[in-house]
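Tutorial handout. Part one gives the primary structure; part two gives the three-dimensional structure as tokens.
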Amino acid sequence: MSQLRVGLAGLGTVGAAVIRMLERQAAEIEARTGRAIKVVAVSARDPKKDRGIDLAGVRWHTDPVALARDPEIDVFVELMGGDGDPAKAAVAAALEAGRPVVTANKALLAKVGLEMAERAEAANTTLHFEAAVAGGIPIVKTLREALGGNRIERVSGILNGTCNYILTRMADEKLSFDTCLAEAQRLGYAEADPTFDIDGFDTAHKLSLLTSLAFGTRVDAEAIYVEGIRSLTLADLEAA
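Part two.
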């Protein structure tokens, strides 16, 4: 079987890690799937930035939309993030070209996921987003396929790893919120600007996706009541 050629947009922490993983586990992936997977083209803001990955021989596109339309890729992987352009335009372009899309962009999916799913169906292609929410379980494929005939009554869980880390450290070690956040940032669990995580927006986007999958109805992330954890104190946790 021929090689599966991947075009990847976004070479931040996640994008670079995906490339490293595909290289490290190339033999195992091919043995299990019967097909080699190779990143052959990428798009990122700064082609000169050192990302700790070998991109020799990989084609560069300054425009992610051009990458999405590249006729020499089989799958488009979007890891740029954000609920608008260029991520939205690139995903739409790939789907319109009949190209399967893989994305971890829960913000985009929570906002225009239905639109993108309709584009995929119209072009007779597929949209995959397992990594967008609880990918470690995994839950998306489970809800869409394994539990397709079941009635789901409730969705609950810990959906944000940054918050989980902070609250666990606060509860177990009696540390302040600021101390735990700083440690999470040092370890790479939290972004330099942690607003999206600690103020609950990441969780709202994930819950919007899970609710839509579990109950078959679209729930706008902006309609979900959100309260972050930045004001929590040790006294709050002890009283809970």
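Part three, for discussion. The first strand starts at residue 4 and ends at 9. The chain has two domains: 4-132, 161-239.
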